[in-house]
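Spend some time on the protein that follows and explain the fold to me:
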Amino acid sequence: MTVVVEDDQAVRLWAAASAAYPEEGCGVLVGHADGDETRVTLVVEGRNLVRDRRLDRYELDPADILRADRLARERGEEVVGFYHTHPDHPARPSQLDTDRAWPGYHYVVIAVAGGRVEVATAWTLDEPARRFDAVSLHPPRPASGPPDHTPS
């Protein structure tokens, strides 16, 4: 399974993630699925409703989800997932992320350090086990991001 963010939307995603720093940023991913590939054609920035722990928590404004759903339907597409940032933390879902996740969607978690996007990862929820499974994400980082140190 692969999540592909179209180039112009990847630029938008990286910019939104950087701009939210040092707080958690969040939003909605719109696109379509075709077999094992989900293509993100529109990134819709959302508002983080958390007031007291914005450095390590987010709650996506439901109005932003409704707005993204409306845009998706106008485009003949659907909401395919959500994104949020982890300021100065790894791009791995937390237990809270897992507890709040909905099945059937992709979740992109973006590690941002010092205002710079380092890497993003994509996940889907295994509902019966209540755990996230990693899926491939393209691109996993901005073109000007740090080198890939993934073991071969």
Summary: Confidence is low (pLDDT under 50) at residues 146-152. The two ends are 20 Å apart (CA to CA). The chain has one domain: 2-138.
